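Protein entry
_____________
===
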Amino acid sequence: MGMYVQEVGPAGAPTIVLLHGAGVGGWMWRDTMAALSEVHLLVPDMPEQGQSQDAGLFSISGTARLVADLITERAHGGKAFVAGLSLGAQVTVSLLGSRPDVVLGAFASGTLVRPIAGVGLVNAMLPLYMPMRNVRWLVRANMKTLEVPDKFESDFARETAALTTASYRRMTVENAAFRVPPGLGSVTCPVLITVGEREMKVMKESAHDLVAAAPSARAFIVAGHGHNWPVQDPSLYAQVVRAWMTNGPLPDMLRPL
């Protein structure tokens, strides 16, 4: 069974693929989709997440292959702009390195490509966390930590309940192990890298690494925001998407890294 995909937008318009973060689903783009009604949107739920629980085991490279197939089959002209957040940004970068022929442009926000401390501890704590994960105060605490807006509580709680120990561990290991892929040096399409001003130092360093690897890449800090800024401020995100697609001026809240 393939990935579940939401498809909206006018026929003949440019196609954008939106890739969500870890442990959620395409629902995180709901407000962004409304703000980008003029374009053709493909919004998949990645494997083991959202409505793609039966789409196979998640891996970054494997999901990049699925996205390439999705673009070939359903994007207008067989090519698309691809934008992702966090785990979705890593899939975006993987796709850019492996299948640049289907990518018109890439927009990756909050893309980890360096080692990060604490992954082993997180996985070691899973036996304690998983039996408690559906308790509402813990769901709410996780939402606050991840800066997920309150209106998504029912969606977030549903995803939390569907999460298994194996899938959680798989996603955290994939996320932590991801590095700059080969092939970015020959990419010529526009590549936009963003990182929230309040994100960890390692995320800003990762953005520098991506710009160094991809000659066509530009990196920007999103002033005043954290990792989940595309969900917190979908209007700003839509403005950035439009500017990236048309090579227009970016909003003032973005400043060069």
